[in-house]
Design brief:
The chain contains 14 helices and 11 strands. It is an alpha/beta fold. The strands form 2 sheets. A 9-stranded mixed β-sheet has the order 3-2-4-7-1-8-11-10-9, with helices on both faces. β5 and β6 form a beta hairpin. α4 crosses α14, α7 crosses α12 and α11 crosses α12. The radius of gyration is 20 Å and the shape is globular. The chain binds coenzyme A. The site of coenzyme A (COA) has 15 residues, from α5 and α6.
Length: about 425
């Protein structure tokens, strides 16, 4: 495909951001969670704003129809936050629904059609038991050639992981290290579903064994714990429980305005200077399972639009729905050569204090993965880090440039955004 360099008709800036806590909330619907996210977003706009100035809404949502029996989600969200009769559009691209909603919002403002739009995402997954969540998610694969053959999402990513191991000599420990890092970050994120480190999980499991009068395992470190099949069972080889993102309820939203208006809302807007999106064949049709072509294309488009190189990017929130996915993402984004993403995690390069901090929020692994909201949750982490407001998980360096990378299913859709703080 010939890559055409694209540009925005005018600049777009993020001036507000809010999210609900991610987790399991039996007493809440996705509209309650969305209203929570909206309330936090309203408070985040430093100089205040009138919500009636919002002109349009773009809402990422994968499957409220199957999870909650509620289709046609976008106008419901608009109504719940008092924005009827503004146009409200639901965006569905599996786990990339939030990221694609964001690019739609960027296009809407950049085109000049709207000066202020609300971009959000929502998903309420825990209404269903795990088996039915698994079937619902499998609808985002190729149902004729993948789900029908018995593939689930852990199974599809397990194929990617085993291909990566075969090609690059990676081991299960490389994947486990991603989980350890992301849980360490998530432990510092009060909004995270698993707001706890794996070291802490170990201690809890030991305490439980003691309470129940069972032998107390004597793991020497987190990796020893993660190799213990009694506590970290195999889901689909080589992906174990702690390699999977969880089943999550949550919502998130950001407020976008034309760049020329941004300073009326805050002195520290976050500018979206690059956006790219691409699609790919279903996984079974790909020649190479160890990289996602659509992610490489989306990243190239976003970097070209922004006029930046991968080396310029300070931090990134990437789509770690499974631990292998983070390793592949860091290569597809051009941060590391093929096969070196696994080395980078072993060398600590992607830790909060490393040269390229990845998933400082805890990522989907620890923060949680309410699929339609995840892409917006990523933008919110970047917003906090770039403004120096990420609390205990703030990276120890200035963040003028950042990236988000959101993947639908196994990469049928990929969307990448580049952010700048001036
Ligand atoms: N990571 C770590 N721990 C997890 C976990 C995860 N992903 N999911 C659940 N747990 C923990 C629970 O907290 C619980 O711990 P507790 O006993 O201390 O309370 C325990 O494991 C059992 O939880 P449960 O909810 O019964 O797990 P489950 O077996 O029903 O579900 C998975 C586990 C891995 C099958 C489920 O999280 C899953 O399907 N994840 C993938 C989701 C997905 O595919 N998303 C789309 C990606 S493209």
């Amino acid at each position: 495909m010939v890559m055409k360099k694209r540009k925005l008709g005018r600049g777009v800036a993020m001036v507000g951001a809010g999210m609900s806590k991610f987790g399991a909330f039996p007493d809440k619907t996705s509209r309650d969670l969305f209203a929570e996210a909206f309330g936090e977003m309203e408070k985040s706009v430093d100089k205040g704003f009138d919500p009636r100035d919002i002109e349009s809404l773009y809402i990422g949502n994968f499957s409220s129809d199957l999870f909650e029996g509620q289709g046609h989600t976008a106008p419901i969200m608009a109504d719940w936050v008092g924005l009827v009769p503004r146009p409200a559009t639901r965006v569905e691209d599996a786990c990339a629904s939030g990221g694609v909603a964001l690019i739609q919002g960027v296009i809407a403002v950049a085109s000049g059609m709207y000066d202020m739009v609300l971009v959000g995402g929502t998903e309420k997954m825990t209404n269903l038991p795990t088996e039915r969540v698994t079937d619902t998610l499998a609808a985002a694969s190729d149902v004729l050639y993948e789900a029908a053959a018995g593939f689930t999402f852990p199974g599809l990513y397990a194929s990617i992981a085993s291909a990566y191991m075969a090609r690059h000599g990676a081991t299960e420990e490389h994947f486990m290290r991603v989980g350890v890092k992301n849980h360490e970050n998530g432990a510092l994120n009060p909004k995270a579903q698993f707001n706890t480190s794996i070291a802490n999980f170990m201690k809890r499991r030991q305490a439980k064994c003691q309470e129940q009068g069972q032998p107390v395992p004597d793991w020497k470190d987190e990796i020893d714990f993660l190799k213990d099949a009694a506590f970290n069972p195999m889901v689909a080889w080589p992906m174990r429980l702690f390699d999977c993102s969880p089943i999550t309820d949550g919502a998130a939203c950001v407020l976008l305005v034309a760049e020329s208006l941004a300073k009326s809302f805050t002195d520290t807007p976050v500018h979206i200077i690059g956006a790219g999106q691409a699609s790919d064949h279903a996984l079974h049709e790909r020649a190479d399972l160890t990289s996602i072509g659509a992610a490489r294309l989306a990243a190239q488009q976003a970097y070209d639009m922004a006029g930046v190189r991968p080396v310029d990017i300070r931090i990134a929130e990437v789509h770690d729905c499974f631990t292998i996915a983070e390793i592949v993402a860091t290569e597809d984004l051009g941060f590391f050569y093929p096969g070196h993403g696994a080395r980078a995690i072993m060398e600590g390069l992607t830790r909060r204090d490393g040269v390229k901090p990845i998933n400082t929020s805890g990522g989907l692994k620890s923060k949680g993965h309410p699929v339609g909201a995840s892409g917006i949750g990523q933008a919110i982490e970047v917003w906090h880090q770039m403004r120096g407001q990420a609390g205990k998980r703030q990276v120890p360096m200035d963040v003028p440039l950042a990236v988000t990378h959101n993947v639908g299913a196994t990469g049928g859709t990929c969307v990448v955004h580049v952010y700048e703080r001036r």
